[in-house]
Amino acid sequence: MYYREWLFFFFYKNINFFRIKNININYIDNFICKNLLYYKFKNKNKIYLDFFLSYKDLFLLNNFLLKILNYENIEYINKYTYFYGLKIFINNKVFVPRIETECLIDFILNYIKNNRFYKILDLGSGSGNISLVLSKLIEKSKVLGIDINLDSILLSKINKNRLNINNVNFKLNNWYYFSSNYLYDIIISNPPYININDFNYINNNILYENFNSIFSKNNGLYDIYYIINNFSKFLKSNGLLILEHFNNHKKIKYIFKKTKKFKKIYSLKDFNNIYRFTFGIKY
Ligand SMILES: C[S@@+](CC[C@H](N)C(=O)[O-])C[C@H]1O[C@@H](n2cnc3c(N)ncnc32)[C@H](O)[C@@H]1O
């Protein structure tokens, strides 16, 4: 079967679905198939309409699109993603690193001063993406990533070994029971922050992800509140606590202020002009 035939066949077979979703055939051709080609068809970036599909190709295309129709994240299908230029393996038991989080890395890289040693703690390290990028790019650093999810820790260790980074460690740990003999220069976290009541409004991709990675009680603030109130004691004086969040930066700044443990408290925007990060510097 030629690619052209397959595309029409697939599109019209699922026409009702595509109508509801306002997806046209060019969208499928350009976006979905390109993704598939990039990852599975030996890095070709264009498939021509007269491309002849083998049975194996057909099987691959059908499976891929059925998964897409079910909204499974493309990263879970491919089993890897890129975060700040590093190839990070993922699986469907861990959170898929998001591009917004790269702004957090930009901020840290601007914040640090050359030739100083940094001890960094990453709370809720997921696939290890933040910890791995920071430990790779900040040579004079020692990074610890903790996560409550064993699958995250196992995967982070695989990523660490694959990338051959030595100044990072990952530990299974729950931030509600965290203790440490050390003080840190930087504590960073992209905690769960979606309000459980927003469940019906959010992107369907999220439904495929680990629930504990995404949702937090108290309008999405439960974990953020705990971290701000309990982690200043693990920071050195002038240490930085920075958190990713969603659309409630004023409340989060207020939580920082109320602790009376932080001097400079600011929120930062991501590249979509949304206040997405808030930080405080410990007195
Ligand atoms: C939004 S994901 C962030 C993952 C990764 N840091 C990133 O930015 O892509 C939140 C992570 O926090 C972890 N987590 C949730 N509650 C936790 C807790 N109480 N203690 C430690 N980790 C927790 C989840 O397992 C998940 O990996």
Description:
30% of the residues are buried. Strand 7, helix 9 and strand 8 form a beta-alpha-beta unit. By secondary structure, the protein is of the alpha/beta class. The chain has helices at 3-13, 15-20, 25-40, 55-69, 74-78, 101-111, 129-137, 150-163, 211-214, 217-220, 222-230, 249-259; strands spanning 80-83, 86-89, 118-123, 141-147, 168-172, 184-189, 194-195, 215-216, 235-244, 262-269, 275-282. The model has no long low-confidence stretch (mean pLDDT 85). The strands form three sheets. The protein has a seven-stranded mixed beta sheet, with helices on both faces. A two-stranded antiparallel ribbon has the order 1-2. A two-stranded parallel ribbon has the order 7-8. Bound molecules: S-adenosylmethionine. S-adenosylmethionine binds next to helix 7, strand 4 and helix 9.
What is the element layout, followed by pairings?
Layout: H1 3-13, H2 15-20, H3 25-40, H4 55-69, H5 74-78, E1 80-83, E2 86-89, H6 101-111, E3 118-123, H7 129-137, E4 141-147, H8 150-163, E5 168-172, E6 184-189, E7 194-195, H9 211-214, E8 215-216, H10 217-220, H11 222-230, E9 235-244, H12 249-259, E10 262-269, E11 275-282
Parallel strand pairs: 3-4, 3-6, 4-5, 6-9, 7-8
Antiparallel strand pairs: 1-2, 9-11, 10-11
The chain binds S-adenosylmethionine.
What distinguishing features does this structure have?
283 residues; seven-stranded mixed beta sheet; two-stranded antiparallel ribbon; 12 helices; 11 strands; 41% helix; elongated
